[in-house]
Amino acid sequence: MLQKNKGCLCENIAVCWLQENGYFVFKGCQTHSAIDLVAIHPVTLECEYFDVKIRNRRKDGTEINRVTRIRDSRIQILSVDLDTKKCRIVPRRNIKWS
């Protein structure tokens, strides 16, 4: 599968996962944007911004850590495992941007 197709598949899996968790989800229309998905909670109307990443592993099995394209604390990484079709929101590390 082409890398571009893997990215599109991951975004679609992430959209379905967020919708199953009750969010209204909006996809970005730009191909090179820092935010891939905007999710809105239906009750509180809070917006969450996600950068969708494929979950990759090194040859020894350890996970490769990903960072967002821009340094903004509002953007979260949503990691998608293509093998198991599972998603997770990566917890933020307590790092201060310089």
Topology, pairings included?
Blueprint: H1 3-20, E1 24-27, E2 37-40, E3 47-54, E4 75-81, E5 86-89
Parallel strand pairs: 3-4
Antiparallel strand pairs: 1-2, 2-3, 4-5
Question: Runs with pLDDT <50, length 5+?
Answer: none
How would you classify the helix and strand content by structural class? alpha+beta
Order of helices and strands: HEEEEE
Mean pLDDT: 84
Q: What is the rounded Rg?
A: 14 Å
The side-by-side strand order for the widest beta sheet comes to 1-2-3-4-5
Give the helix level as a range of percent: 10-25%
End-to-end separation in angstroms reads 38 Å
Shape estimate:
globular
Total beta strands: 5
Number of H/I helices: 1
Outline the biggest β-sheet. 5 strands, mixed
**Strand proportion:** 25-35%
What features would you describe in this structure?
It is a single chain. This protein has 98 residues and is α+β, with helices and mostly antiparallel strands. The protein contains one helix and five strands. It has one helix spanning 3-20; strands at 24-27, 37-40, 47-54, 75-81, 86-89. Strands 1-2-3-4-5 form a five-stranded mixed beta sheet, covered by helices on one side. Strand 4 (75-81) and strand 5 (86-89) form a beta hairpin. It is globular. It starts with a helix and ends in a 9-residue tail after the last strand. The model has no long low-confidence stretch (mean pLDDT 84).
